[in-house]
Amino acid sequence: MKDCLPDQLYSVYVDGESSAEDIRLVESHLIGCEKCRGVILALGDEAIVIADVLHDRHRLADRNPVVRAPARTRAKGLAIGLGPTLAIAALLVTVLGWLLETRLPAGTSWMNPMKWIGVYEMIFDLIFLLRDRAPGLIEFTVALGAMLSVASILTFLVSAISRLLLGTSALLLLLTASMFTSPPVANAFESRTSKGDLEVAMDETVEESLFISAEVVSIDGTVDGDLVVLAERIVLRGVVHGNVFAIGREVEVSGVIDGSLHTAGERVTIEGEVRQNLYGAAETMTLHERGRIRRDVTLAGESVHMDGSVGRDLVSTAERVNIRGTVGRNASTASGRLTLHGNVRIVGDLEYSLPDEAEPEIMSGAEIGGETTAGDLLQKLSRPVNRWANGHFYMRMTVFLVSAFLVGMVLQVLRPDVFLVDLETSSDFLRSMGYGAIGLVCIPIALILCFVTVVGIPIGVIGVFLYVTILLLSVIVVASVVGTSIAASAGFEGEGLHAFGMSLLVGLLVVVIAMNLPFVGGILRLLVVMVGVGMIIIAAIDAWQHRLGDGYAG
Predict the structure, then answer these.
(1) 223 lies in which domain range?
(2) Quick one: which of 15, 248, 257, 361 is 20 to 30 A from 263 by CA?
């Protein structure tokens, strides 16, 4: 009793009028005194009643502060849980690496993706079933989510502007004027759908990006933007001045693509020209002898036939790989069987990975300008790169630090509640990581469902940008917690935007360096993003619950 602080000090604290010294005094006492925490809650309830009587609920958030952990312990849970999490992740990586580098034990051959015969057909059956049989439910869900999302965003923007910049009368005047001055919304792309066949005729030019969904799609004309196609059979004989995203059972490309080609199907055949990169996954993937890829090629499937020309590097994983064409630089393959025919010309090195120390079948007349070595493609792709010896790395890191710092400062001014989630205990760390793992998996699934239907395409595009934004913000919120703890431990504790900026900058430096460390950098990067996404989700849930609790008062 005698050690408790005066009630007057608590009352001023709840009203949000305490000095920085009094705030630290009260919060340090509340950590170990359950009775005084009850007093704080009672005073907060009293403030709610008074606000309801005075019809002044809109100021309640400023007078009812959130009790946070001391600054130096806000990342304590991260420090406690990081070690065991890294150990578990390293164990999983080691086990998976061993399974991939050796023969899989009996009964586990299904884990080898090159043995997934029939899986491609099942995947496309599911995609087209969703498109054809369940569009109404998906479109209704997407439309409802879009309406609620737009309404929430507009409500937040209007309320924020009215509180920060305008009075009520000025806001109404602005909204009235905007009804007469707003320009019409322009379409970013054109969409065409049909349950039958669709085509872009030879003499037709689409002057924007195009989305098509049908049974059979034929592109004989010109598309001046990107092309997105979902169909049972896709035939591209025209010209696309952009990137192409094609998903279908059969994909045939004999035209010209100025950008990159991203394709997936059961049977993919390329006889035309792709002036950037090719990324393909199919049960049977064929680059015809007339096919030409100006830059890099990355292929995966059950059977890969590379008969055409590749301008730079070829990377391929499949059960069977047959190469008859030309590779401008290096070729790397991981397969059950590799055959190089007599007219093959590889300017650089050939690195192959075959089971049971098997040798590739290299026919007479094949030309390999560099070395031919047996290696592990998966190990090569995951091989740590010495980024610190590359000048471009420092430039990219500087750009990221500056942009992340500016975004964090703006976020602190507009939505400081994003930074209210702490990692004080190991349970806080594990809870954030769990929410983050769910978010990282469920959000892409929801976006894929949006892209399946036409009405969901705009929502899916917006969702992709929001998803990337959340990934960036995840690093910022974790850096904020880490920087605050480091600054407090060093004795540089303070209030205000300047103190937040200093701690954020310190945290960003520490987190960015940690994410780029050799060997453990990749795992740390995944953990930071996972925990950060979880912290954002928790902050959003808390804000939503607070809004629901206060909503009845208007």
Answers:
(1) 187-275
(2) 361
